[in-house]
């Protein structure tokens, strides 16, 4: 049975250095295919809001992954601007604190205008590039990495956010500590036997489904494939397959 928030389309990480490359990639799909893409700092800082307008005009949904982290007032007004772009999902660092996350939510609501649905707002907990050892040494956080991640997820929930970006392996603990509806968006997805690149703890789309991820993010397995459309469909099928079980 499908759960509340689960997104049927894998989110494609559009990690390209320029508009031209990103658009050529998208043009390989049928014009009727509505994708969900993630635009990160690299592409957005180079191309600006125009790249968002262009992707939107093709009918795709957008997760704008800029990971905001600043004082509440600055984040609030930055979120106002992002909401105005008409994206579907944005994010902040949970390390910015509950007040900052509340301000982000407020900025989004104000930015979209009355009666309009505001973009979903997620929090990044601990970056996957942070090891437990580094977290304890550099951030002086003495609990385990997992406890820190769950704590950040609970803060995000308190601030009224929709969910977090996390590893598929953390979904169970996060949902148990927040709620089953709290969105867990999980990168680090690979088909069985695929190259890991720099990802360390990967799961297959099927495993992500079993672990109760709500959204999966896939980048290089699709964007660097010789046949992106075929690989995307394969990942999507595997991600959705268990729905009818
Ligand atoms: O190419 P790949 O599938 O590894 O890309 C995953 C995407 O998810 C990239 O855009 C990467 O920056 C992002 N990401 C991640 N791990 C996190 C957060 C984001 O891989 N913890």
Description:
This protein has 245 residues and is an alpha/beta fold. It has a single domain (11-240), classed as Alpha-Beta Barrel (TIM Barrel), CATH 3.20.20. It contains eleven helices and eight strands. It has helices spanning 19-26, 41-47, 49-57, 72-84, 98-112, 132-138, 145-158, 171-177, 205-210, 220-223, 228-241; strands at residues 11-13, 36-40, 61-68, 89-93, 120-124, 163-165, 183-186, 215-218. Strands 1-2-3-4-5-6-7-8 form an eight-stranded parallel β-barrel, surrounded by six helices. It is globular and about 45 Å long. The N and C termini lie close together (8 Å). Bound molecules: cytidine-5'-monophosphate. Cytidine-5'-monophosphate binds next to β8 and α10. The site of cytidine-5'-monophosphate (C5P) has 15 residues, from β8 and α10.
Number of helices: 11
Largest sheet: 8 strands, parallel, barrel
**What's the number of structural domains?**
1
> Strand portion, in percent?
15-25%
Sequence-ordered SSE layout with sheet pairings:
Elements lengths: L10 E3 L5 H8 L9 E5 H7 L1 H9 L3 E8 L3 H13 L4 E5 L4 H15 L7 E5 L7 H7 L6 H14 L4 E3 L5 H7 L5 E4 L18 H6 L4 E4 L1 H4 L4 H14 L4
Parallel strand pairs: 1-2, 1-8, 2-3, 3-4, 4-5, 5-6, 6-7, 7-8
Bound molecules: cytidine-5'-monophosphate.
